[in-house]
Amino acid sequence: MKTIYSRTIGLTDRDTIFCPGCTHGIIHRIVGEVLEEMDLIENAIGVSAVGCSVFAYDYFNCDMIGAAHGRAPAVATGIKRVHPDSVVFTYQGDGDLASIGTAEIVHAAARGEKITTIFVNNAIYGMTGGQMAPTTLIGQKTTTTPKGRTIEGCGSPIRISEMLSTLECVAFVERVAANSPGNIRRAKVAIKKAFEAQIKGAGFSIVEVLSSCPTNWEMKPEEALKWIESVMMPYYPLGNFRNWKEGV
Amino acid sequence: MTEKLMKGNEALGVAAIIGGCRHYFGYPITPQSELMECMARELDKVGGTFLQAESEVAAISMVYGAAAAGSRVLISSSSPGIALMQEGISYLAAAQLPCVIVNVSRGGPGLGNIQPSQADYYQNTKGGGNGDYRTIVYAPESIQEAADVMIKAFDIADRYRNPVIISADGMLGQMMEPVDLMTPVKEKRMECKSWALTGTRRRREKNIITTLYLNAEELEGKNKELKKKYDLIEKNETRYELYNMKKPVFIVAAYGTMARIVRSAIEILKNEGIEVGLVRPISLWPFPNKAFEGLPDGVKGIAGIEMSMGQMIDDVKIANNGRLPVFFYGRTGGMVPTQVEIAKWLKCVIEGVENN
Is cis: bond before B31, omega within 30 of 0? Predict the structure, then answer.
């Protein structure tokens, strides 16, 4: 008998806290696989954030630290400056990265900090119970926008990948999605490229992953995956925004 | 002995490097910018790293990362900047990460001004971060003492895995004094920090540094573990100086710049035949309670004198435990009282007590 599929050694065997149908688990898995396949587990130091990804330190099978809300890129900067030969990554959600941690992510990117950020965008605050995020779409109902988000009251959702790709010292930016087998495969390729950019010393790298939150979107898991494609993708188009190799 | 005339901020920077500091993160603010500039210039020469952060909030988180990675790391700021760092300081204390923080304090509250002040006593010793935690706080009174305290601060921080704050008001930061930094210091052998994040390098299980404990019993246990450590620090690291304690009729409690001025006031009163002793806390936390327990017979009262509206006086009252009457004199907002002003006030208070 031949084993054709098993748990990646990039992840520990801890049970995750994620709700049924949430794609955080898939994203964890592909990051773990990339750590394993690129032989980075022994050399990696990960920074977890605050929100649904708060327990990432228990799941990734490498040295890990939990940062204060939004500060993961600053914590990663401190680590990388002490151990420049290590591979340092942050795993952050959209409340953490695009709201309270905006300054930290923008300046880590502007400095060309040689770290990799996995940015999980599900357009809502999951852990705290479904409040509006800076990435919440216009019209989207949340517990703090019960009638739907309006431009008049809240402005427009932030496109982080587009914004960061304008910075000179950013090596790699790509937006992917975790809503279909094909997109998950493409997400994994992008995550690999992001780590490669760090290892080659090219600068800051980030992969934004569109992710589902069936619980707080109040949808069935299958509907949530469709919602990523039909509602999120038109506003958050998939694709590469910056790639140092090709000089884009 | 080779003495060099140095500005307090620069002496702190050079002493930090002698103490083994190899990483610095900070954000410009008056009156401490010379310390930051010194680190930008000097760290490079010893293979260290200087980084100017986008904010104090980010800078202290960079310290959190660098300390977790095992480095001897320094951060400096002044009052409003330290206010912004309280989040990170709470995390550092919770995760038991060593680092040294310098607060060259200025007048407050709010944006205040850039004149010397001791109005950050609460901020330094009680903290503004969340939770049950303590920071070790040293308050030198001269540039030499500031340098000496700084050299040892990294050892203390590492030994207890705890942030150490050096409280130096704007006066100490800005003035120049002769400093002897040539005292040969034994080459610091960095302790093996088995808890640090280095990558497992196929040598050990993964390390996790976290401050999250959702289980209440577990979190209470963590707090008890911290308390045990804080008790040990109180036992081992309480530092103070007693001055003119032969036959005082009165005691002054003062620290830092204020203590220096009080010394001069004590001389003025001595010439008038009034003996006043000084208790000078060097560690503000742990506070030297025991210095107030065995005061000589004949002491009729204690005066707290501070460049604030009265902050350390709370700890003086706790230490005094109701034994003697306690008085307070303070100037604030960047006002520095003169020795004549203090001597006059003390004389008046002492006469009042003696006539009662």
Answer: yes
Chain A CB contacts of B66 below 8 Å: 78-79, 81-82
Is the whole-model pTM more than 0.90? Answer: yes
**What domains appear along chain B, each with residue ranges and CATH number?**
3-237 (3.40.50.970), 240-355 (3.40.50.920)
Contact B49 A81 (CB under 8 A): yes
Q: Give A 139-158 residues with CB within 8 A of chain B.
A: none
On whether the CB atoms of residues A86 and A43 are closer than 8 A, the answer is yes
The ipTM is 0.96
- Choose the mutation target among B23, B55, B61, B87 for the interface with A, i.e. most A CBs under 10 Å: B61
| Domain annotation for chain A: domains and CATH numbers | 24-243 (3.40.50.970)
pLDDT by residue, tens only, chain A of 248 residues: 899 989 999 999 999 999 999 999 999 999 999 999 999 999 999 999 999 999 999 999 999 999 999 999 999 999 999 999 999 999 999 999 999 999 999 999 999 999 999 999 999 999 999 999 999 999 999 999 999 999 999 999 999 999 999 999 999 999 999 999 999 999 999 999 999 999 999 999 999 999 999 999 999 999 999 999 999 999 999 999 999 975 44
Ranges of H-type helices in chain A: 24-37, 56-59, 72-82, 94-95, 102-110, 151-154, 160-164, 181-199, 214-217, 221-227, 233-235
